[in-house]
Amino acid sequence: DMRSLRGAIEGPFDVVLSCDNSIAHLEPVELPVALGEMGALLCPGGHVLVSVRDYDALVAERPRFMSPAAATDGRTVAFQLWDWAEDGSSYALRQFFLEERGEGWETTCEHTHLHAHVEGTILGAFREAGLVDVRWHMPAETGYYQPIVTGRCP
To answer: pLDDT-derived band of residue 111, with 50, 70 and 90 as boundaries?
Structure first.
């Protein structure tokens, strides 16, 4: 639980990572709490690094469907449906898996609820958590497929 790391993990660390949009599972008021917990595990000068979806663009567009992707074996297909809240602040994500099973196909579905934390909200939460030198890095700068946010322990 990102909101109570100090009780579960012994530090200190040079870097604490939270990748692949995991902070979208947190309510907006929980962001500074989780980032404060990450920062509390750092050595002086250590960094928190978080990767997120670019929700500034996604909220404006509010896509309903993410394109299918086939597994390397070519016999499993995954796709997502997104049901957005009216105000665009969050969405229900349904992840479908279509898998070949013998002569037929089986469909399974997993679901979760995610919060569309935009850049300003995330940067503000980093600062509220006491992190400094807070920066937003776009994929063109880093080569990573999602924006990366960094902050440093003073």
So the answer is: very high
